Amino acid sequence: MKAVYCEPEYAGYFIVQGDNVICSESIPLLYSFRNSLESIKELRAFICEKYFESIQRAWENSLNQKLSYTIRYGICENGTEGKMIEETGFHKFSEDETYLHSIVFVRDVTTQVINERDLDLAAKVFHKSGESIIVMDANEKIILANHVFESQNQFTSQDYMGKTLSILRSNLEEDSSYAAMRKSIQEKGFWRGELTYKRYNGTVYPAELSMSAVKDEKARVTNYIGFIRDITEKREAEKKILELARFDSLTMLPNRHSIQSHIENELASLDKGETLAVYFIDLDNFKIVNDSLGHLVGDLYLKIISRRLHEKLSGPASVLARLGGDEFLFVVRNNGSQDDIEKFGEKIIENISETLLVAGSTFKPSASVGVATAPNDGKDFASLIKHADTAMYHAKRTGKNQCVRYTVIMSETAKERLRYELNLRAAIEEDELRVVYQPKIELALNEFTGVEALLRWDSKHLGSVSPEKFISLAEETGIILEIGRWVIDHVFKDMAEFNKNKSKPIHFAINFSPRQFHDETIFAYLREKIVEHGIDPRWLEIEITESSLMENVEYVKETLQKMRKLGILVSIDDFGTGYSSFLQLKNIDVDILKIDKKFVEGIEEKDSDFSILRGMVSMAHNMGMRVVAEGVETQGQAELLRSIGCNMGQGFYFAHPLDLDELEFTIGSKTH
Question: What does the pLDDT average to over 637-654?
Answer without folding.
Answer: 94
